[in-house]
Amino acid sequence: MESIFLFWMRTGHGKMRGTSYGNEDRRCECGSWESSDHILLECERWRIQREGIYDRWEREEGVERKRVEIDWLLFEKEGVEELGEFGRTTEWMKQRWNARVEYSREKRLSREDEGERLRRRAVLRGKD
Fold first, then answer.
1. Are 15 and 92 in contact (CB under 8 A)?
2. What would the DSSP string read from start to end of 37-105?
3. pLDDT (tens digit, 9 = 90+) per residue, 14-32?
4. How far apart are CA 61 and CA 126, in angstroms?
5. Based on CB atoms within 10 Å of each CB, which residue in 15, 20, 95, 104 is the most buried?
6. How far does Cα 68 stand from its chain's mean position?
7. What is the number of domains present in the chain?
8. Does a structural domain hold residue 11?
C-alpha cells in the first residue's frame, strides 16, 4: 500500500479529489482544492500527523520548519520514509477508497432507480 500511496502523491492521480478521474467534488473536507501538496503540506486536518515530517526535515536538512520541500518528501529516502509513515498514520488511502466505494454504490443505485422508473413508464405506455 505504501508504494501505491507514494505513486499517487508523486503523480497527483489516484483517489485525490482534485483530479478529474470521476471525482465530482474536487475539494478536500476542509474546503480547499485537494492535491498532493495540499494533503502533504497544507491541510489542517493532517497537521498533527505531519509533525514527524517537519521534525525529520529539520534534522536531515538543517532547515527551519517553515515549509518542507515537496521534492524531498516525494523523492529523497528520508522524505519517502516519512511519507510512508504519514500514509499509515492517516489511513488516507483507506478513507479515500471507502469514500469512492460509497460514491460508486450511490451512483449505481441511482442508475438502477432511473432504470426502474423507465421500465414502469414503458409498461404504463404499453397499457394505454
1. no
2. HIIIII-GGGTTTTHHHHHHHHHHH---TT---HHHHHHSHHHHHHHHHHHHHHTHHHHHHHHHHHHHH
3. 666 555 554 556 678 888 8
4. 75
5. 15
6. 20
7. 1
8. yes
- Within a domain: 66: yes
SS3 113: helix
Q: Residue holding cell 510512508? A: 84
Residue 111, pLDDT > 60, answer yes
Work out the average pLDDT over 63-89.
Answer: 85
| CA–CA distance, 50 with 47 (Å, rounded to integer) | 5
Question: Contact at 8 Å (CB) between 83 and 9?
Answer: yes
Contact (CB, 8 A) for 22 and 106? no
In the numeric block, which cell numbers belong to residue 10?
A: 508523486
Residue span of the structural domain in which 63 resides: 2-90
In a domain, residue 21? The reply is yes
Assign 17 to helix, strand or coil. Answer: coil
The owner of cell 529516502 is: 77
**Residues 34-50: b if buried by 16+ CB within 10 A, e if exposed:** bbbebbbbbbeebeebb
